[in-house]
Amino acid sequence: MDVETRMREVEREIISRRPEHSVDLALGRMAELVGLLGDPQQACPVIHITGTNGKTSTARMIDALLRARGLRTGRFTSPHLVSIRERIVVDGAPISPERFVAAYDEVLPYVQLVDERHPVAMSFFEVLTGMAFAVFADTPVDVAILEVGVGGRLDCTNVADGLVAVITPISLDHTRLLGNTVEEIAAEKAGIIKPGAVAVLAPQPLGAAEVLLRHAVEVGATVAREGVEFGVLNREQAVGGQQLVLRGLRGTYEGVYLPLFGLHQAGNAACALAAVEAFAGMSQDAAAPLDAGLVREAFAKVSSPGRLEVIRRSPTIIIDAAHNPAGMAATVAAIQEAFTFARLTGVFAASGDKDVPGILAELEPLLTDVVVTRNSSDRSMDPQVTAELAIEIFGEDRVLSAARLDDAIETAVALADEAVAETGPGSGGVLITGSVITAGDARRLLAPAGGELPPEPSATQPARHSFTAAELS
After folding, report:
1. pLDDT digit string (tens) for 19-62?
2. At CA 360, angle to CA 20 and CA 386, rounded to 5?
């Protein structure tokens, strides 16, 4: 059997397991699996990331900074946009189909053993987490960057102990699993802050901040807060992104170009920088700043596909994975700041278990009109139901509906073309949003090579140094 056929077969087998959204928060199955595998999660130091929004972008920035410093990195994030292999990344590149298949074949006998011992079988996400740990230990990588799936305390990634725990902004999402208040959600996310770790905290609602700080004190962690110990000192718009001055934990870094839009991405950059400074300080002179040239070079090459990503020009088509009200508010603010559209048409498809009215309410001031549709997930809200919700917020004359995403995009592009014809280049745009799945589907339709993500560029790297466990503990 050729590798592509086997890859498709493996993907089907993984997807056939309990899906990502059917979460049974518990560490027992995962702890047993990694024990059978020889505890690969302990093979290298870990930077662990949770929060409601911004986790993947922050993970990609941390990865870029670490690789710029000559470290071999492993990165585990979710969900994926186009290919399931995007979730397991080594040195900035998704692992190959051959390696994905090999990792699955390696862990499968142990997964089946765990399945036999527990009333609830291992999930899609748990199997992928085990594969990531195995790949990172086998490579081996110098540091693993792990993004939590849901919450933190009982998320299966939490069998690893992060030397640095990053908590991006917390808001209401996954309330069925994590709680109905930001305080309850923060208590779950605080679980990744381990004794002796450094907790890097983005700005939080007051209640969430109190919970996080209390937990950090209880476990003896050091706290670094954006806006207090580190942060964004200055931010100016630039072509294709923004120019930043960042104050880190160990120095100030001027002239940092970030090719991403929005205040939220500047905040993510500040958290990423602080996380890498904290990590570096555990093995080197804690007071010495990072090499400013490498910091600038790393940030200048960062990308975050599916996050305010301009995928086409003339008319401008932007895809964005925002899927809760707080995330959409950040998206709206960034577009209002960075673009000047005379007409912006939205293409919107969201999961039925999300706060769709809240998301649409954030979008309403930005969009001229919206085409509601569905994405490829069986959790996608029916367009007729979405249209009814949208009409209550936008008014009937601003809402259109399409049964298929490609038809919705075609309708939106035609409306944007009208604006360009009437007002001139750059005046018409399309925003495709509402879900990571919607963004991924749009990327498959519109981007070259079926939307597959290319390897990420790296800054000029000095000679690699594989740190020992003693140096990094």
Report:
1. 655 667 789 999 999 999 999 999 999 999 999 999 999 999 99
2. 70
Peptide bond into 97 cis (omega under 30): no
Which pTM value belongs to this model?
0.93
Three-state SS across 362-415?
HHCCCCCEEEECCCCCCCECCHHHHHHHHHHHHCHHHEEECCCHHHHHHHHHHH
- Residue 342's pLDDT is 92
3-state secondary structure of 62: helix
For residues 131 and 114, what is the distance between their CA atoms, to the nearest angstrom?
Answer: 14
The helix/strand/coil state of 230 is strand
Query: Does residue 75 sit in helix, strand or coil?
Result: strand
pLDDT at 299 over 60: yes
Give residue for tokens 């609830």. Answer: 120
User: How many of the other CB atoms lie within 10 Å of CB of 358?
Assistant: 15
**What is the Cα–Cα distance from 48 to 472, expressed in whole angstroms?**
15
Q: Which of 448, 175, 437 is nearest to 321 (CA)?
A: 437
Domains of the chain: 3-300 (3.40.1190.10), 309-447 (3.90.190.20)
Q: Please, what's the b/e burial string for 275-302 (b: 16 or more CB within 10 A of its CB; e: otherwise)? A: bbbbbbbbbeeeeeebbeebbbbbbbbb
What are the residues facing 372 on neighbouring strands?
348, 401
